[in-house]
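Holo prediction. Input below; ligand is 1,3-dihydroxyacetonephosphate.
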Amino acid sequence: MPEALAYDPLVVSSIDFKEEPLTLIQEEILQLKKERNAIILAHNYQIDPIQRIADYVGDSLGLSYQAAKADADVILFCGVHFMAETAKIINPHKTVVLPDLQAGCSLADSCPAPKLQAYKDAHPDTYVVAYINCSAAVKAISDVICTSGNAVRIVRQVPEDKDILFVPDQNLGQWVAKLTGRRLKLWPGSCYAHVLFTVQSLEKLRAQFPGAPIVAHPECVETVRDMADEVCSTEGMLGFCRSHPSRDIIVVTETGMLNRLRREIPGKRFIAGPTDTCACNDCRFMKLNTVEKMRDALANLSPVIELEESIRQNAFRPIKRMLDWSS
Ligand code: 13P
Ligand code: SF4
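Structure of the complex:
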């Protein structure tokens, strides 16, 4: 029997969930949204007060589709920088604002474009599949983009004779290689948050919730993925949790995910995947966005995402290929 966790698990229940009335600042944001003819897109990891007033909440793939069909002058993107940048690449004539420009991503940081270019110069026949968690400059020198929701499908469509380099997430890449049977060279990047989940912490949690299935994000390390009942994108988690008969489900990803699960799937208890030191696992970048910063961003139309046009055009090509290959 594994020893108990050193802290109480974080359990979020939708069994008696009731929506709180909107706060004044949330009302103010919705009013500004009308005045600006804006749309609010939010990632599944955002705090609940942001998810509550977004027009669309989803994973990176869903957000890319929403950005592509956005019928608004302004996109207020509540997520991290590479996501807002993707929206700008797809919508060059729209104003894209991100509540906090410092909302980066450890994966994007792990793959600077000059380093990738140096690799390509040394290996000119390489076909680069880039996880969407990368900068526009990296997208601009990649062949196709993928998200955790379509990575397997995208890699399967790369012609067999290509020598694939998968950037920047080695864990997602390793998972995709296993599922597709393709040989992938892996860039040595990782998500600083998802690698904090461990087999030990999950075993201790499972002892407290016997029979509860585990759903994990592919950015987790292999040993954690191997003990999961399902490995999928954050959007995939919605489907898994909805259809699984268990009342209790262990969710191994960033804690904001539980907000969406609680709102949309009634009658269940979602238990946050713990690390060795904490019951929850917040991404410090995702959590830089606040409702106050949202309000200010819409009021001032700042900070905006700006891109050099040549980079934007080159980055658009592999994104378009992804959207075509996954539709
Ligand atoms: P999803 O596309 O699955 O939402 O993942 C995005 C991300 O940043 C995971 O850490
Ligand atoms: Fe990047 Fe990890 Fe945060 Fe996702 S959770 S945005 S991969 S640092």
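The pocket of 1,3-dihydroxyacetonephosphate (ligand 1) is lined by residues 44, 59-60, 133, 147-149, 191, 217, 219, 233-234 (CB under 6 Å). That is the main takeaway for now.
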